[in-house]
Amino acid sequence: MNLLKKNYFFILLISLMTLLWTLKNIFFVHETELAPNRLLIFCSSLGFSILVASFLLFRFKWIGYSLAVILYTSTSFLFYADIVYNRYYHAILRIELLSQAKQLHKIKDSIYSLIYHSDIWYLMDIPIIILLMFFFLKKWPIKNGKIAGVSLFSVGAGIIFAISYFSLQFTYSDQYKVSLTGVIPAHVYDLSWNIYKRTYIKQTFLQENNLASIRKEFTEKQEIQKSSPYFGKFKGKNIIMVQTEALNAFPINLKVDGQEVTPNLNKLIQTSHYYPNTYLQIGRGNTSDAEFVANNSLYPMGYVGAYKGFPKNDYLSFANVLNDLGYSTSATHGNSPEFWNRLEAYKKQGYSKFYSKGDPEIVADEIIGLGISDRSIFRQMAQIYKKENKPFFNFIISLSSHRPFVLPEKYQLLPLPEKMKNTSTGNYLESIHYFDDSLGYFIDQLKAEGIWDDTILVVYGDHYGPLPIDEKQIKDFLNVDFNEKTRFNIPLVIHHPGEEKGVLNEGVGSQMDIYPTLTALLGIKEPLVQLGTSLDADYHQIVGFAFETTRYSFYSDDYDYIAAHQGVFELGTCIDNHTKKPTDVQKCKKGYDSIFNDMQTSTFLLENNWIGKIFENGPVLANGRN
Ligand code: GP9
Ligand code: MN
Prior knowledge:
The protein is α/β, with parallel strands linked by helices. It has two domains: 2-200, no CATH class; 228-538, Alkaline Phosphatase, subunit A, CATH 3.40.720. It is 47% helix and 12% strand. Strands 1, 4, 5, 6, 9, 10, 11, 12 and 13 form a nine-stranded mixed β-sheet that branches. Helix 15 links the parallel strand 5 (328-333) and strand 6. The longest helix has 30 residues, at 2-31. The protein starts with a helix and ends in a 12-residue tail after the last helix. Manganese (II) ion binds next to loops.
């Protein structure tokens, strides 16, 4: 009788765990707006529940219990971490990211802004299951369940492995993998695929790849850069490049209650080249990948941020090229230098100097959010330029408009209508307005210090600010359709020295095109490792996405291609931008092949550290600071 009850309760426990895990996974899949495969999710949840329960049958029952509790709790928290991560990155976590866990405290406010009250449902099962397991062991102590325990463990693990290998493929997006099998098999698959890939694929690709064809591709790209009407017009000028935190394009020229959100940028645009159809191209490194793409004209990686995964590679980055031309080169970031591994990565990126928090030349006199305030950084840099050997290149990464977009009251300078106060959209616009105000001040300083006339100023956004969850509010408040394309849209402004009348260039472009656009202005003739092209050249750019949306999606002037989650070209949607309607998918094939090829090249160059080899005997050699 006791045995019957014991088995009965044990099965009930596994059933309850399975039910809760199935539900949690299905909720998560609904957040991604995909359709869950209920059967496979149920099976993987069953596998996991059996695996957890098997520990309760181990001989030392309280050790078994502790292990079951640890496994259930830690997996539940990792699962929840996936949910929060997905709300920002549209992907699930990777094991490589664990090494960055120590910097989590710095972005805690941003993380809190992605946690909702209703999330309690994702964690409520933990105490219930822990208590039930305790109750089970207390009431029906098991004398010797070793064999049963090991067998159940194998069954549970077997189910999970079988589902991972038979249902998933490496081409599937993270979200699609989760929608098919739930989070656990998705992680098991990713982990094993990465181990396999690291061990075998790299070498094969290395042998098969053809150096001559890569060299030819870059040489041809250089011919396109030369066709820019401004080619060589600004040789030897200083360059200040400002990468702005969370700056989307939609606040540009936007008015709230008759007040411009970005009056200084709007004014700058009047006398600059403005590229309103520029798009982000970030990978898992987010801000740091925006930096990487803009400075290297390569694709980011989908599985690891470039600064984290490949900091020691040789690069033919913008700073390295400028070092060879005799420029003083520097980067500026108002947080500690180790943040996102910048200190290490910047050496090979070629910056001769890194101005950051803690540097003797920088005073942390005012902190907003993640670091030194934009206004303070701009003020200090304008003074530093005076002493800098000319020409100089300075790359500033602004910080004050980082999420959660809450500014000290004295800097909330944008008069918002009552209904927008303390809303995520209102706060976002306040942050952008503060950045804009600081930028205006910076430009005034540059003029006052006599730097402006000899300087190319570049301003662009690193990635989107608001999230998909804000879409409705943005529509209600601002009548802006904050769809995926608007979300990926960042502004790019390039002010040429002496430019008085602005030029509006509405061609599609991306962060990858910034570096080639600038090297064209400087008149660099030697081929460079650049997958992008000068935005001023007579050429139709394609913006490919390696991450952030389904891989190999792209935007171009004529067609947009939305890749399918399954990773099969024919299953994607090709949109004719003239009719705004889906068209024959084959019309997107050429664009797809080109970005597919470029992403392969980029991956190959990074994974094998081959950039230094391409133009080994060529005119410009990357010599990072060591
Ligand atoms: C800040 C950056 C972190 O410059 O390193 O920002 P995020 O990637 O979270 O936007
Ligand atoms: Mn950022």
